[in-house]
Amino acid sequence: MEGKFPVETTVDTATINERPTEIVVSKFSDKLFMVITQFGKVGNLIEIRRDIAQKDDPSSAVYNIRFLLGGDEEVVHVAARFLMNYISTNQTIILGLALKDYQPSTLRQLGEHIKANQFQKK
């Protein structure tokens, strides 16, 4: 079958805090599916919806987070919200997150890598 597959997928491996980290991003028409793992597994599966609290102020974004699979842990909530600062999309994101640690330095490095590689842009 010729032509482009309807789902554009990007796969990348980065070293985050001296640990190999796989990042897989699939862009659907209405959602962004992103897996970030240091275990080779999906881990927690989280749905993140971005709402704008005030129309004229994009920095006032509010994120609704719902766990679809895995433990509903506060540290994963914080990590998901933090990583959203580096992902510029209005689409709903389905995020698979499995990190060995959720330290601020790990999340910062990961966010900078995502932003620098612009995985989320159409």
Please outline the helices and strands:
Layout: E1 8-16, E2 19-27, E3 31-37, E4 44-54, E5 57-69, H1 74-84, E6 92-98, H2 104-117
Parallel strand pairs: 3-6
Antiparallel strand pairs: 1-2, 2-3, 4-5, 4-6
Plain-language structure description:
The chain is of the alpha+beta class. It has a six-stranded mixed β-sheet, covered by helices on one side. It has two helices and six strands. It has helices at 74-84, 104-117, and strands spanning 8-16, 19-27, 31-37, 44-54, 57-69, 92-98. The mean pLDDT is 88. Helix 1 packs parallel to helix 2 (104-117). The protein has a single domain (10-117), classed as 2-Layer Sandwich (Ribosomal Protein S5, domain 2), CATH 3.30.230.90.
Overall CATH architecture: 2-Layer Sandwich
Q: SS-based structural class?
A: alpha+beta
Please tell me the total number of domains: 1
What fold name stands as the CATH topology?
Answer: Ribosomal Protein S5, domain 2
Shape: globular
Helix content: 10-25%
Q: Report low-confidence residues grouped into runs of 5 or more.
A: none
Number of strands: 6
